[in-house]
């Protein structure tokens, strides 16, 4: 245990270190008060602004050819596993596709589903050369589908003025491309309205 004099000397030394800008007389004056506020200089940390990562522009993506499928990869058999994955995805999305499932419920799910990997057929078209094209959807853009056919040909089919049929587990759904001109990411949030008759 320290004596009174030692305690006083310790406090004086401590206050002198803690308040280097104050003189001894001022420190003694502070000791007569009930509370002592020690000086503390905290370094303010500069807030670093987080930079958002910038993606590629559309022009840069075209120049880098990010979405182009190489000719040696344009083989139908290469994408059959993708179709099998898509079928399992749709079954999970529609809770099994049971025979007693309501057709409008399945149709509503398919309208918002990702179609990459689906096998579609062009059933109606204003351009007769498109009718009958069947294949796996490899890429979906706002205005076109890129489809790989069984004879390993990559077809670019516009959505406008075309009707596509899609079959899975006995359910056949028809897609009117003119009302389907959306990107896949935008389509998932869109509310589709029921219409009685739709023209090409």
Automatic annotation (TrEMBL):
**GO cellular component annotations, sorted alphabetically?**
nucleolus; ribonuclease MRP complex; ribonuclease P complex
Mind telling me which SMART domains this protein's record contains? POP4 (SM00538)
This protein's UniProt keywords:
Nucleus, Phosphoprotein, tRNA processing
Q: Where in the cell is it found?
A: Nucleus, Nucleolus
Q: Which domain of life is it from?
A: Eukaryota
Is tRNA processing set as a keyword in this record?
yes
| InterPro entries tied to this protein | RNase_P/MRP_Rpp29-subunit, RNase_P/MRP_Rpp29_sf, Rof/RNase_P-like, Rpp29/RNP1
Could you tell me the Gene Ontology terms of the biological process aspect for this record?
rRNA processing; tRNA 5'-leader removal
Q: Indicate yes or no for the key word Repressor.
A: no
Record's Pfam families? RNase_P-MRP_p29 (PF01868)
Give GO MF terms, alphabetically.
ribonuclease P RNA binding
Family the entry assigns:
Belongs to the eukaryotic/archaeal RNase P protein component 1 family.
Role according to the record: Component of ribonuclease P, a ribonucleoprotein complex that generates mature tRNA molecules by cleaving their 5'-ends.
Subunit (UniProt): Component of nuclear RNase P and RNase MRP ribonucleoproteins. RNase P consists of a catalytic RNA moiety and 10 different protein chains; POP1, POP4, POP5, POP7, RPP14, RPP21, RPP25, RPP30, RPP38 and RPP40. Within the RNase P complex, POP1, POP7 and RPP25 form the 'finger' subcomplex, POP5, RPP14, RPP40 and homodimeric RPP30 form the 'palm' subcomplex, and RPP21, POP4 and RPP38 form the 'wrist' subcomplex. All subunits of the RNase P complex interact with the catalytic RNA. Several subunits of RNase P are also part of the RNase MRP complex.
Q: What is this protein called?
A: Ribonuclease P protein subunit p29
What is the protein's species of origin? Answer: Ramphastos sulfuratus
* Gene name linked to the record: Pop4
């Amino acid at each position: 245990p320290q004596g009174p004099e030692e305690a006083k000397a310790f406090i004086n030394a401590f206050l002198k270190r803690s308040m280097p800008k104050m003189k001894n007389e001022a420190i003694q004056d502070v000791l007569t008060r009930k509370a002592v506020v020690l000086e503390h200089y905290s370094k303010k940390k500069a807030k670093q602004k987080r930079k958002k990562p910038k993606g590629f522009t559309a022009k840069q993506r075209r120049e880098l050819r990010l979405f182009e499928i190489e000719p040696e990869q344009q083989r139908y058999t290469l994408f059959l596993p993708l179709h099998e994955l898509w079928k399992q995805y749709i079954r999970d999305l529609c809770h099994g596709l049971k025979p007693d499932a309501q057709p409008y419920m399945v149709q509503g799910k398919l309208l918002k589903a990702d179609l990459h990997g689906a096998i579609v057929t062009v059933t109606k078209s204003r351009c007769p050369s498109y009718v009958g094209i069947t294949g796996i959807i490899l890429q979906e853009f706002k205005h076109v589908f890129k489809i790989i056919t069984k004879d390993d040909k990559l077809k670019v089919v516009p959505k406008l003025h075309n009707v596509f049929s899609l079959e899975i587990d006995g359910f056949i759904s028809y897609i009117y491309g003119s009302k389907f001109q959306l990107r896949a990411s935008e389509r998932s949030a869109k509310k589709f309205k029921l219409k009685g008759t739709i023209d090409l």
